[in-house]
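Translate structure to sequence.
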């Protein structure tokens, strides 16, 4: 019995080892194949659902066209005309002249003649400094000049007497020579006195400060009673020329050759200054000059445009957008920019003929002022400018002069 029991125990142990053994290789492969088949089946189901939706959508569009349902849209006629080629950039209004006036004479300010923001002319009175010390110096210099001038006159009379006496052998030649040198010394003294008078006159003129240029005065920086020093760094008033003015802007170096060629041909090019949002034109001017070197850090070159600025729309240091007219294309086909649609790299328009829309691929060119130069359609053809989400080839179109609502619900809004 003991032998039988031992054999039975060995059989049980062998069975347990078989249960714990790893699955055969062919069972693992079957599981993997099943998983791949399930994934493929799922992918086929998803593709069929998506394809079915596209088919239904296409069928719906065809049914719409077949049912002769018309779409309301605005339209425009392609025209033949001219369009400008512009270079757009940003610029800063930079005055031709800006004068920061400092004191060239020391003293107390006695009067301020200008008003803040006043337009002054060249030579207009601005500020007066107490002139009395400089008047006294000038008076002293004039007195010394008058004294030495009379001394010179006396020496000149003496030399004439000596010449007469020497001609009659009344005196020695040495006395005449000495007197002539005295006259020359007195002439030098008088010239020195005259220089002192001129210098003191200039110093006195510095007490009356006038505008060196025509322009607009800034805020008042000093008041009567303030003491200023000659050669000090304190600015008394700033005058900025505003009429005319200039705008400095940049241009890519790649466009330099074309602009230079047009400048040699026309001598100048029109420039427009637009506001920050480019919705309004502030002024029209002309290209004045091109800088003499390219900025290697940015690959751009600076240009200066001149504006008469009679309206005062351009303000010093104001940020503006500039448009430089480089060329004009003549006799091209123009359509509204809003009529041009894009599908990837392809541009197209919806051409409406006999009340039916068709798709026409086009090649676009220069755009300006809401118009775009195109190739692929002819002047006189009508293109849609709205309702693009409803348009398709073959659909009927009812042209209206009013813009179609973007949302159909808007049509029912009271």
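Result:
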């Amino acid at each position: 019995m003991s032998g039988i029991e031992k054999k039975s125990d060995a059989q049980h142990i062998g069975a347990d080892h078989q249960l714990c053994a790893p699955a055969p290789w062919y069972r693992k492969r079957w599981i993997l194949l099943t998983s791949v088949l399930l994934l493929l089946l799922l992918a086929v189901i998803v593709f069929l659902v998506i394809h079915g939706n596209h088919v239904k959508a296409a069928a719906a569009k065809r049914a719409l066209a077949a049912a002769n349902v018309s779409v309301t849209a605005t339209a425009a006629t392609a025209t033949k005309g001219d369009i400008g080629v512009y270079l757009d950039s940003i610029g800063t209004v930079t005055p031709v002249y800006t004068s920061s006036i400092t004191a060239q004479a020391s003293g107390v300010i006695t009067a301020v003649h200008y008003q803040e923001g006043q337009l002054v002319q060249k030579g207009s009175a601005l500020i007066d400094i107490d002139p009395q010390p400089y008047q006294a110096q000038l008076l002293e210099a004039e007195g010394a000049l008058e004294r030495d001038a009379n001394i010179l006159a006396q020496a000149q009379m003496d030399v004439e007497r000596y010449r007469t006496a020497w001609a009659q052998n009344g005196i020695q030649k040495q006395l005449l020579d000495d007197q002539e040198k005295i006259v020359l010394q007195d002439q030098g003294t008088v010239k020195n006195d005259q220089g002192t008078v001129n210098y003191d006159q200039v110093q006195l003129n510095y007490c009356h400060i006038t505008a060196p240029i025509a322009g607009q005065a800034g805020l008042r920086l000093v008041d009567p009673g303030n003491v200023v020093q000659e050669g000090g760094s304190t600015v008394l008033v700033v005058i900025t020329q505003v009429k005319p003015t200039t705008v400095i802007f940049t241009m890519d170096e790649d466009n330099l050759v074309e602009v230079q060629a047009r400048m040699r041909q026309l001598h100048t090019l029109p420039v427009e200054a637009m506001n920050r949002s480019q919705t309004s034109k502030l002024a029209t001017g002309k290209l004045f000059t091109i800088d003499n070197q390219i900025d290697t850090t940015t690959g751009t070159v600076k240009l200066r445009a001149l504006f008469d600025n009679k309206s005062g729309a351009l303000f010093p240091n104001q940020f503006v957008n500039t448009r430089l007219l480089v060329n004009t294309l003549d006799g091209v086909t123009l359509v509204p920019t809003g009529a041009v649609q894009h599908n990837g790299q392809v541009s197209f328009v919806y051409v409406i003929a006999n009340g039916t829309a068709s798709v026409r691929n086009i090649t676009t060119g220069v755009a300006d002022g809401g118009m775009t130069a195109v190739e692929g359609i002819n002047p006189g053809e009508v293109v849609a400018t709205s309702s693009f989400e409803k348009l398709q080839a073959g659909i009927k179109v009812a042209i209206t002069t009013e813009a179609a609502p973007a949302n159909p619900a808007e049509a029912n809004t009271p």
